[in-house]
Specification:
The protein has 459 residues and is of the alpha+beta class. It has 18 helices and twelve strands. It has two domains: 279 residues, no CATH class; 159 residues, no CATH class. The protein starts with 8 loop residues before the first helix and ends in an 8-residue tail after the last helix.
Length: 459
């Protein structure tokens, strides 16, 4: 059995505090310059292997919707910007794309509604503050979109960063089992936050949760599945489209069904038994999000007892994370296995059908992860938030992110590094405001590229 580090919390805090000699907290405010001649549009346009090029125009259009949408689609660009600057000497499993739209409500295997991080395409081992910076930056950009002035944006950023710091210091005092099993159901969330938020703020958070919107299984079935004895997925371009033969990256419907047929070895035995009671009946390409557009992604409809007993699986191709690419690190494991491992570490209640599989295409192995689709998922509508609700939501996300990081077992070291003063909050806030300005310039550059004809946003 591996020997466990049984140093005291105080000793681990001291270890984390020592990291300040390598990277000071104040230095985390710095936004490094880009290389001379750097062209953000060209960087974004560089094709990824196995990308569905016919979806490129759709991805550009979605990124052009707002500066926040642009940020979501430019995860690699921000990761590379972070890699050029100073990073804390504390690495652990991070989300890699922890913007505020990447949190939401979904159903746990026990059918409770929980609030947590929801997407792990970019999860990897990296500096913990990369997640904090991306979250706080996204909150600042969202604040800008609802008309907050710069002073209010600074206050907002510091409040969210402070919540992460305070929550991490609290998690550092809890036992490892308490951290690992901490509950995040929407009902218990308010109780769990009683000691962290004033009553008026908790009422605002409760309001935020009521603003969440999403599609559950029943509504998805009614909208996207034809009725009758032989259920099929309804074509709804670009959301759902059926493949005809082999697509442009060499993927076929048969290849996707092969992933479903063989990935069950990555599930627990009880989930294997449950999955064996369902039969795939249809497959369609599935296009969602902003940054994910262009990746091979499919929905598989499965039927159990009869045509009224159905559910969706999402089959999505995984690639090297933006964290690894930005840090110029070789992948340590299969890309889809990395996604599944990261999700299982960071989420309190991962999807019961979460697993991964591979398929050979043109004598090359390609990696896909599998999860349940439309499992009572819901995400926030930023446009419906005022400044108070946005702060409350940002703080809940920060608290949730701290809990996700704490599950790696390094909460005391992080708590020691970030300390009890507001220096960490101020540094993260300064970085977020600087990055808001850079993101705005990049967003304008993308608009200019459309006008100049450098990129095509038409079908």
């Amino acid at each position: 059995m591996k020997k466990v580090n049984q140093t005291t919390v105080a000793q681990r805090r001291l270890e984390g505090r020592g990291g300040r000699f390598l990277t000071s907290r104040g230095s985390l405010a710095a936004l490094a310059d880009r290389p001379e001649g750097y062209d953000v549009v060209e960087r974004l346009a560089q094709s990824r292997e196995d990308e569905v090029h016919s979806l490129a125009a759709l991805r550009w259009r979605r990124m052009l919707e707002s500066p926040l949408s642009f940020l979501r689609g430019a995860a690699l660009v921000m990761a590379e910007d972070l890699a050029r600057g100073p990073s804390a000497p504390l690495t652990l499993q991070i989300c890699g794309d922890a913007h505020l739209m990447n949190f939401g409500v979904f159903a746990s295997p026990e059918r409770r509604l929980v609030f947590d991080l929801t997407d792990f395409d970019e999860t990897d081992v990296g500096p913990f503050e990369w997640d904090v910076k991306r979250l706080v930056t996204s909150v600042v950009i969202a604040g800008d979109s609802i008309g907050l002035r710069h002073g209010a944006q600074e206050k907002l950023a510091r409040s969210v960063a402070r919540e992460y710091r305070v929550a991490m210091r609290r998690f550092a005092e809890e036992t490892r089992l308490d951290v690992w099993y901490s509950s995040l159901t929407t009902s218990s969330l308010m109780q769990d936050l009683r000691g962290a938020f004033a009553d008026v703020t908790r009422r605002r958070i409760d309001d935020v949760l009521h603003h969440l919107r999403g599609t559950d299984d029943r509504r998805a079935y009614q909208r996207f599945v034809t009725g009758g004895e032989e259920p099929r997925i309804v074509d709804d371009p670009p959301h759902f489209t059926h493949l005809e033969g082999t697509d442009e990256t060499g993927i076929t419907t048969e290849a996707i069904l092969g992933v479903v047929a063989n990935y069950d070895a990555t599930l627990a035995t009880d989930r294997q038994l449950l999955l064996s009671q369902f039969t795939p009946v249809d497959v369609a390409r599935h296009v969602v999000g902003v940054g994910s557009v262009g990746s091979e992604c499919f929905a598989v409809l499965l039927s159990g007892r009869d045509h009224r007993d159905t559910f969706f699986l999402q089959i999505k191709e995984a690639h090297a994370s933006v964290v690894a690419r930005a840090r110029e690190r070789d992948a340590a494991q299969d890309p889809a296995a990395r996604v599944v491992h990261g999700q299982r570490v960071m989420q309190v209640t991962p999807d019961a059908f979460l697993g991964w599989g591979t398929v050979h295409v043109d004598e090359r192995e390609r990696s896909f992860y599998v999860r349940q689709l439309y499992d009572h998922r819901a995400s926030i509508d930023v446009s419906r938030l005022d400044d108070g609700l946005l702060e409350a939501y940002g703080r809940v996300c920060a608290w949730t992110l701290a809990r996700a990081h704490a599950r790696s077992g390094t909460s005391a070291q992080i708590a020691g590094y970030i300390g009890g003063s507001p220096r960490f909050d101020e540094a993260i806030s300064d970085f977020a405001q600087a990055y808001r300005e850079r993101n705005a310039r990049d967003y304008r550059a993308l608009h200019d590229a459309v006008v100049q004809g450098r990129i095509n946003i038409e079908h």
